[in-house]
Amino acid sequence: GHIFDGEVEGTAVSHGHSNDAQVYAFLGQFKVYAGGELMPFEPNNIIEVWTTESVYDAFTKLIRYNVLAAPVYNPAEDKYIGLIDMVDLATLAMKIFDRAALTDLSSLRTAGGSDSFTGTVEAASNLSGFDPFVPVPNGTDLLSVLRLLGERGLRRVCMVDPSQRVMGVVSQSLILSWLHENKAHLGHDMRKTIEALGFVSGPELVVTVSESALAAEAFKKMIDSGVTSVGVVSDETGELLTALSVRDLKVLRQLTDDGPQFNFAPMFETVMSFVSMSRMMTVVDKAPIVHVHASATLAEVIDKLAATHLHRLFVTDDERKPIGVVSLGDVIRAIPTRP
Asked: Which of 52, 72, 197, 320 yields a CA-CA distance of 20 to 30 A from 190?
């Protein structure tokens, strides 16, 4: 997806004096289009999943293209029935674990866990209720898209052509990269600290797990709390060590002699070893910087989110203990989208 101005030449907004009204006017020039050469993959090759595919195929697709969600298309009825995302996979895995009473892998096998993953996508999509399918006409103005992703808290919208086929997905992360490129036009608020913007909630509102927790417990907490990542804190000091995210579920997908399948054994490892397995599978070998100080400015947060491709940063105190969270949605909500 990409964003460009319609007929209007980009007006230079002087950084020193821009206020909300000027930022609003700047944003008002742009429309959001999907498709074309600027897509992250080949043009018109939208990553979509058909209801006839298995859950395994669907998640293989998400992992291969490194996307968190894809629209689910029913070819028989020629319509979209929803989105399937990594959180649906986690929810499905947790449902199986609840049945198997989180004891061991042999009980998991007898609980028929694998059937859920070889079953078709239709049953699994929208399972978490996390990512509703929201179609938006291609060429919608940027302000409307910002309001959907900010005020309504949607993580992504699907840009559709007049026949309602999806042309591309515009996510909070895509919008964040655009804001990052255009932050010189985003006014005074860029210089406000995240503390001033209200992102220091206090430690009791930050979702964390201890480093010795099982990965399964961490994913369960993530789903119960409705977030896509949890902080992992030290048992001894309570300081933030790393974060576990839904993307780390790629650890469960393994290639065997019988072809690809899900292996749930890593769910019974500690969260720290689960994270290190995931990092080993990633080309990037460095652990991402998952935290910022309360004195960081909104501009610095945008820089860090754009550089790490993370969806949230933990706010830490001087002892690196988590005291808040700032997410992509928080950043988008901080941008003036109403006159």
From this structure: 320
CB–CB of 3/33 below 8 Å?
A: yes
Q: SS3 of 174, please?
A: helix
Please report, for residues 50, 241, 249, the alpha-carbon distance to residue 314 in angstroms, rounded to integers and kept in the order given: 36, 11, 20
Retrieve residue 208's tokens: 């964390």
Per-residue pLDDT band for 153 (boundaries 50, 70, 90) equals confident
Residue 26, C-beta contacts closer than 8 angstroms, at least 6 positions apart: 11, 13, 18, 182, 185, 186
Phi, psi for residue 158 in degrees, rounded to 5: -105, 120
pLDDT digit string, tens, across residues 172-212: 988 999 999 999 999 888 999 999 998 888 888 899 999 99
The pTM (predicted TM-score) of the whole model is 0.79
Distance CA 124, CA 116 (A): 8
User: How far is 290 from 132, CA to CA, in rounded Å?
Assistant: 27
The answer to whether the beta carbons of residues 253 and 259 sit under 8 Å apart is no
C-alpha span between 194 and 331 (Å, rounded): 10
d(CA 142, CA 160): 15
Retrieve residue 254's tokens. Answer: 């393994």
Examine the pLDDT at 133 and tell me if it is beyond 60.
yes
Task: Return the H-helix or E-strand segment holding 90.
Answer: helix 86-99
Q: What pLDDT, on the 0 to 100 scale, is given for residue 265?
A: 78
Total Cβ atoms within 10 A of residue 107: 14
Q: Which residue has the tokens 């986690």?
A: 90
- Whole-angstrom Cα distance, residue 304 to residue 288? 10
Torsion-angle region of residue 97: left (phi > 0), alpha (psi -120 to 50) or beta? alpha
Q: Would the CA dihedral through 81, 327, 47, 90 be positive or negative?
A: negative
Chain-centroid distance, C-alpha 207: 16
Q: Checking DSSP bridges between strand 69-74 and strand 79-85, what pairing results, if any? A: antiparallel
Stated length of the chain = 339
Residue recorded with tokens 């907490």: 221
Residue 290: pLDDT band by 50, 70, 90 thresholds? confident
Token digits of residue 282: 């990633």
